[in-house]
Design a protein that fits this description.
This protein is mainly α and about 200 residues long. The protein has eight helices and two strands; from the N terminus they run H-H-H-H-E-E-H-H-H-H. The longest helix has 24 residues.
Length: about 200
């Protein structure tokens, strides 16, 4: 007598292996920090054609004037990334305010760099090891990420990728923020977003 469970078991194993394999392809390299779930393609810094702040007319910036000057000064870059990725510039500004307060030289204890606090491939971040080696090996360097224009573009692409993948802004922000804080990071950013827009 044939047992259906004997035929189902190999099919389940094959299915699990397929899911794991596809997940590794989509999420490679796996990461300790959740924001690395999405690795945007990194164009060379010179290929990012963002208008300089002095090139943008003041009425081109749709960022709320409630944001402090430390954030307002990056309006051209925020606006460009927002337009390119169809994201509210006020949400980008909220992340930036929470992450760095608008300081382009911000460097966290964990090694995150710049305005959007992106983990680079070098520095302290190089110490984070995943199953296949350094977690952030595919990331830009600290030097690249200290460039405000590049940092904003890269951080926004990460955030947009997380929103697309998670299907929800709060879930995406939870993944963008520090590990093991639950929704507190996401809720702080969303509170800033609500209060400043």
């Amino acid at each position: 007598m044939n047992h259906p469970s004997k035929a189902i078991f190999p099919a389940v194993i094959v299915g699990i292996l397929l899911v794991v394999g596809i997940s590794r392809l989509l999420l490679s390299p796996p990461s300790v920090v959740q924001a690395s779930d999405v690795e945007p393609t990194t164009p060379p810094a010179e290929q990012v054609n963002t208008p300089q702040p002095e090139e943008m007319a003041s009425d081109d910036c749709t960022l709320s004037n409630r944001y402090p000057e430390n954030i307002q000064q990056w309006c051209a870059y925020i606006q460009h990334a927002a337009t390119e990725h169809q994201l509210d510039p006020n949400l980008i500004a909220a992340v930036m305010l929470q992450e760095s307060g608008g300081n382009p030289d911000a460097y966290s204890r964990s090694g995150a760099v710049g305005l959007m606090q992106v983990m680079p491939r070098d520095g302290k971040a190089a110490e984070f090891m995943c199953v296949n080696g350094p977690c952030f090996a595919n990331r830009p360097s600290s030097q690249e990420l200290f460039d405000p224009q590049f940092n904003i573009e890269y951080g926004v692409r990460m955030l947009v990728g997380l929103i697309q993948r998670k299907g929800d802004v709060r879930e995406a922000l939870k993944s963008y923020g520090p590990m093991d804080v639950g929704y507190s990071y996401a809720d702080k950013v969303l509170t800033i977003y609500q209060n400043y827009r």
